[in-house]
Amino acid sequence: MTALWTLSLLLSASLLGCLAETSPDGSPLPHNLPPSLGTNSSDGSLSVDLPMALRVFSMDYHHVQAPFEIVLWIMLASLAKLGFHWSGRVPAVVPESCVLIMVGLLVGGVIYGVRHSAPPTLSADAFFLFLLPPIVLDAGYFLPGRLFFENLGTILWYAVLGTLWNVLGIGLSLYGVCLLAQSSLGDVSLLHCLLFGSLIAAVDPVAVLSVFQEMQVNEQLHILVFGESLLNDAVTVVLYKLFESFLRLPSVSGLDVLLGGCRVVVVGIGGLCVGLFFGLLAALTSRFTSRAQVIAPLFVFLYSYLSYLTSEMLHLSGIMAIVTCAATMKQYVEANVSERSNTSIQYFLKMWSSVSETLIFIFLGVSTIQDIHMWSWPFVCSTLLLCLIWRATGVLLLTAFVNKLRRNAVTFRDQFIIAYGGLRGAICFSLVFLIDDFPKKRLFITTTIVVILFTVFVQGMTIKPLVELLYVKRKKRALPTLSEEIHSRVRDYRNHS
Amino acid sequence: MTALWTLSLLLSASLLGCLAETSPDGSPLPHNLPPSLGTNSSDGSLSVDLPMALRVFSMDYHHVQAPFEIVLWIMLASLAKLGFHWSGRVPAVVPESCVLIMVGLLVGGVIYGVRHSAPPTLSADAFFLFLLPPIVLDAGYFLPGRLFFENLGTILWYAVLGTLWNVLGIGLSLYGVCLLAQSSLGDVSLLHCLLFGSLIAAVDPVAVLSVFQEMQVNEQLHILVFGESLLNDAVTVVLYKLFESFLRLPSVSGLDVLLGGCRVVVVGIGGLCVGLFFGLLAALTSRFTSRAQVIAPLFVFLYSYLSYLTSEMLHLSGIMAIVTCAATMKQYVEANVSERSNTSIQYFLKMWSSVSETLIFIFLGVSTIQDIHMWSWPFVCSTLLLCLIWRATGVLLLTAFVNKLRRNAVTFRDQFIIAYGGLRGAICFSLVFLIDDFPKKRLFITTTIVVILFTVFVQGMTIKPLVELLYVKRKKRALPTLSEEIHSRVRDYRNHS
């Protein structure tokens, strides 16, 4: 087990060393070619490298750089995951996300040491276009439909009102803090505070999933926390964009605020419609795959991704779209497609989402090693405190209302876990980098990283003991019996032949 | 069935229409934003679109353009494949590759009509880095090892000597043709003819696989044709690069020719070693995946692709590397990994390679619609004729030698199929675009396209009736019995629980 860890770390260190050596700033390598030949490589794959005398052996890193580095990062992520699960005791104590962030910190440190400059950060495009969709698709495809719709009212209650409560609460009280610490934080306006509040209030589905999956609390509590983290995306992202556009406007009128309210609804409902459309299209297409079974799984991925991209293009909620799309198509696809295809779809969704998740946490660690940090004790500490306070009071208040309408009330223990399980993650991180430059942007970035690390490490590591302490009802595990399993396979075989 | 075709064509036409409208030359869209806001989108995903007054609804195509268009192309390819297999009679008469090229021609025509400019061509980078590896990986992973090594001598004989014979034969006699037609082809040098010969002689594994898989000839004939098409890559690509570098040198010495000979060996053996290294590493890693089964399949893809990229980086034969890597790891991976993982690996390899193949043929069709064609009857016709003649004589001559050493001789019928099944495809096509500009480059491109279309359409469509006419021994099909299938699944279940 330690052998594997060592192997993985050695490999990654050497790989990254080579990477850092060969591309110090991501620019094409100089090789030792005359520039006239070097530039040739941009239009073709094979035409570089033979200068004035013929060489038997030559090398061209620039040609394969992009896919090579992506594969190396994925390899590092996979090896880290493998090492984590292979080591016997670590998984029992520390959640995977923490270990991965620590691996990221280590790798970032190595890169910083070798290069003497900051390692690459997780770009918002890479995150929103490539890393987030597989995770949300996986979540949507395996969403327990009945349970979700039974609790939809409560989930929406938390997701919409709870998020508004958090954003406004954190934003306004942070502005108060800035007014009190006038000397150092005087240049942070109310709108900046609200903007920051909207991104720091975003509960992250990736972080929540990763911690709650390992814990296995009862299903209802799980769907409440997870459902909220999925659906609050529409609200936080819209509020974020709203405040951002307010910052750009010369003045904010009442009409603008009203339009902003409309936008929240449009973004949510629009994402839902796009997802529904592509989900039904996928269900229809799956009817025709019986003679080309080999590409049947592909349509699940293609249509879902298309729904996500279309929503992003139209500035609707991509997360809503892909979850709806996956949930809509699921039962039709499962019925229309062979059992082997179903196995492959499920396996692949799980594989992809787990790699994405691993990459996100590693990159969170890597991106923490930066030159651009800016520190302010009052701002950082009060943000941390305010996040906790506003989330706790919000959950308590909203549950008091919602319990009057529910048959089975949300217990006080459940409320504590909901409030404490509101982890922040890569969504805040990506959003904070997108803020237009202003003097305190670096402080915002530092504070966001501190909040993420605090929630993932402190809350993520203590939530499991706390659940045990509070004796929250655990999920009952049900394994299929042998006869069930074989039965379903014989049925499948008959369908085939 | 026709409904599906219509749906697919309508969808693709409308999608491509939108595509052509929104990005006339692949450049970012102007939207109707002031440029200061428009340029903002390059550093972030969410920061565009809200100009001076708040909008409830907005759109940003540029942000998602790259993944969106890739997904659309894959979707078009998948739908075309689905339509082909759904239509009852077409697959019996026309090979899939022909139908796909025709779909490509149609789509290319539509794009040309809408845009009034040539559609995008298949870039050599996209082909060599992304489309070719999955196909060769699939071929290598499912390579029948015993059969391959039993026939390795014959395969190498065809692949090395046969290719040399073809390249030199076609190159030299084409130079003769150019000398005869001095008035129109006088500016084509001997080296240019040899360069062209080296790329036009490359038998294409993708085209060969696609035609021979549908035909199901006996296994030995299949491995001879397919093995040759895999291994001749090292020879053709090296010869191509050699002549290309000779063209750049001020003068060619005897030493250069000698070094060139060494390079052929280095490229082949080097690719083999790289593949072996990564294959063993993958076999080792698969031993540790038992506690993280969900990412086990990933390592098959990662290590194989890494072996391919490493070889390409070092200018070794990527095809040799990936085939060796896959063949080396296969038995270890299959033994170390659960049956569900194995199913997913196999399914995914097949899915990926079949999509790549489909995309390649569609793009061959699309890229044929060009503004840059140049026609010359003597050059095109003599190339076609010379390709056929030199391949036929080469196979006859080499088989005469090889039959003296083999236990079971290659029959005359088999020889005919080997010679006739030497289809050209996307490898030639990608290589011809990489030639440094010179006055007759456009003629080379046109001729290559004609040769590819001729081999795929005429030879590809007539080879099946010819096989039946010549009564070549067919492969015996063996389906697993019900008890075998269930048995293996029960065993798998026991391993799991």
Brief overview:
The structure is a homodimer of 497-residue chains. Chain A is mainly α and 497 residues long.
Set down the secondary structure blueprint.
Two copies of one chain form a homodimer.
Chain A (H helix, E strand, L loop, with lengths): L1 H21 L12 H4 L22 H26 L3 H4 L2 H20 L8 H18 L3 H6 L1 H29 L1 H4 L4 H11 L4 H11 L3 H30 L5 H33 L9 H18 L4 H19 L2 H30 L8 H26 L9 H9 L5 H9 L6 H30 L11 H15 L1
Description:
- Two copies of one chain form a homodimer.
- Chain A is mainly α and 497 residues long.
- The first copy, chain A, is 75% helix and 0% strand.
- Chain A has 21 helices and no strands.
- Chain A has helices spanning 2-22, 35-38, 61-86, 90-93, 96-115, 124-141, 145-150, 152-180, 182-185, 190-200, 205-215, 219-248, 254-286, 296-313, 318-336, 339-368, 377-402, 412-420, 426-434, 441-470, 482-496.
- In chain A, helix 1 (2-22) runs antiparallel to helix 3, helix 5 crosses helix 16 (339-368) and helix 8 packs across helix 12.
- The longest helix of chain A is centred in the middle third of the chain and has 33 residues, at 254-286.
- Mean pLDDT of chain A is 81; it is low at 1-7, 13-52 and 481-497.
- Chains A and B meet through helix 3, helix 6, helix 12, helix 13 and helix 14 of A and helix 3, helix 6, helix 12, helix 13 and helix 14 of B.
